[in-house]
Amino acid sequence: MLFWNLLTNSPFCAMQDFSLYFQLGWQHILDWKGYDHILFVMVLCGTYAIQDWRKVLILVTAFTVGHSITLALSVLSIIKVNTPLVEFLIAVTILATAMANILIPITKQKGVSLKYVLALFFGLIHGMGFSNYLKSLLGKSSNIVAELFAFNVGLEFGQVLIVLGILILSFIFISIIKVKKRDWNLFLSSAIFGIAFIMAAERISAAF
C-alpha cells in the first residue's frame, strides 16, 4: 500500500495525468461532434487578417478568461449547469457574434471593445458547456484542481490551432485569391449564422 501511494503521487505519475488531461482538452475542442465551439472561435476571429493578430489575441484572451472561470466553478460544483439551456445559449452566442459581424462592417469597427465584452461574456457560457465533459472524465478523482488546469491548457492549445487555421484561411482568400475583406466577412459570418440558427432551433425545445 505504501509503495502504491508513493507511485501514484510521484512526479512521473503527475506528468502522465497532466499529459492525459491536456490531450483530452484539445481533442474535445477539436472534435467535430462538438463543432459549436469551433464555429464560435471561427466567427469570433475569422473576420480578421493575419496582420490583425493583436486584436485576435485580445479576443481569444477574453474568451479564455470567461470560459476558464465557469469551467472551474462548474467542475468544483460551485455553480450548477442546466445542460439543455447551456447548449441552446451556446448556439445563441454564435448567432449574436455572426450578426454583429454582418451589421458592423470591419471598416466601421473601432478597436475591439465591444467584441472583447462579448467574447468574455460568451466565454462564461461556453465554460459551462466544457464542464459537463470534464466532470464525466473526473468521476471521483481527488486531484480535481491539477486535472482541471491540464484540461484547460489543452482547450487553449486546441483553440490556438483553430485560430491559426482560420487566419491562414482568411489570408488565402483575402491576400491570394483577392476576395475583398468585406465580402469574406459577409460570406463567413452568414454561413455560420445559418448553421447556428438551425442549431438554436433544434435545441430550444429542450432548453425551455
UniProtKB/TrEMBL annotation:
Keywords: Membrane, Transmembrane, Transmembrane helix
Alphabetical list of Pfam families matching this protein: HupE_UreJ_2
Domain of life: Bacteria
Transmembrane segments: 34-50, 57-79, 85-104, 116-134, 157-177, 184-201
Protein name, UniProt field: HupE/UreJ protein
Species annotation: Pedobacter duraquae
